[in-house]
């Protein structure tokens, strides 16, 4: 439950900031503010769930914890499922909050590509210049950067960050990754945060094009 609620907060606040930027035509938000929002969203979601589950909020983090033998494979599956469910509900809440704005902006159409595209509010899509190989490299490096920093932050044998401050520092790391590696495809470093909202949009009216 804690992982679900924490991930819900992450997606609701993070994707909500993207919605505010896109639907206002960049009048109410900018690229910087979206990255700041995602950083704070991770921090807020972490504070919500850290005391119960450790605040993974990301299957990549849970997988790393499993590889390091900090959680069992059963708990890995439970965490990933909980994160997926939380992200799904988070996307649904963004949809409800901005339904009228989405309808007006898209002229009553839910589109994935084009000048009135709105699917990018919920999931990451590659820029026109980005090829498949470069996209894979981009995501590997960005996710690896996140994981290296998180492992350093929680390592008690390192210059350990006090437990109560760890969510803030992790949020700063997410902000850093976004500001430095967000241009190509919006730094999809969290599989649950991207896949669950993508599935939601496929069902909610954007169709199978969200997977192309």
From TrEMBL:
Cross-referenced PROSITE patterns: MIP
Membrane topology, from the record: Multi-pass membrane protein
Key words, A-Z: Membrane, Transmembrane, Transmembrane helix, Transport
Annotated InterPro entries: Aquaporin-like, MIP, MIP/Aquaporin, MIP_CS
Molecular function terms, GO-annotated: glycerol channel activity; urea transmembrane transporter activity; water channel activity
Catalysed reactions, as listed in the record: glycerol(in) = glycerol(out); urea(in) = urea(out); H2O(in) = H2O(out)
Top-level taxonomic group: Eukaryota
Family annotation (PANTHER family): AQUAPORIN 10, AQUAPORIN OR AQUAGLYCEROPORIN RELATED
Cellular component annotations (GO), alphabetically ordered: basolateral plasma membrane
Matches recorded under SUPFAM superfamilies: Aquaporin-like
Transmembrane segments: 36-55, 76-98, 132-153, 165-183
Family: Belongs to the MIP/aquaporin (TC 1.A.8) family.
Subcellular location: Membrane
Keyword Amino-acid biosynthesis annotated: no
Hydrolase recorded as keyword: no
Protein name: Aquaporin-3
């Amino acid at each position: 439950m804690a992982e679900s609620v924490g991930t819900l907060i992450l997606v609701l606040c993070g994707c909500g900031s993207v919605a505010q930027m896109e639907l206002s035509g960049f009048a109410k938000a900018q690229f910087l503010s979206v990255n700041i929002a995602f950083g704070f969203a991770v921090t807020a979601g972490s504070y919500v769930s850290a005391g119960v589950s450790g605040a993974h909020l990301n299957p990549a983090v849970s997988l790393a914890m499993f590889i390091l033998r900090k959680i069992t494979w059963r708990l890995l599956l439970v965490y990933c499922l909980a994160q997926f469910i939380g992200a799904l509900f988070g996307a649904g809440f963004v949809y409800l909050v901005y339904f009228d704005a989405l309808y007006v902006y898209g002229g009553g159409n839910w589109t994935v590509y084009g000048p009135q595209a709105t699917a990018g509010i919920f999931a990451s899509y590659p820029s026109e210049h980005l090829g498949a190989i470069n996209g894979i490299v981009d995501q590997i490096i960005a996710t690896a950067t996140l994981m290296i920093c998180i492992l350093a932050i929680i390592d008690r044998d390192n210059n350990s960050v006090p437990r109560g401050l760890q969510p803030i520092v992790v949020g700063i790391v997410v902000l850093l990754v976004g500001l430095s590696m967000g241009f190509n495809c919006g730094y999809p470093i969290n599989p649950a945060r991207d896949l669950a909202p993508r599935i939601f949009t496929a069902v909610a009216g954007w169709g199978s094009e969200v997977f192309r």
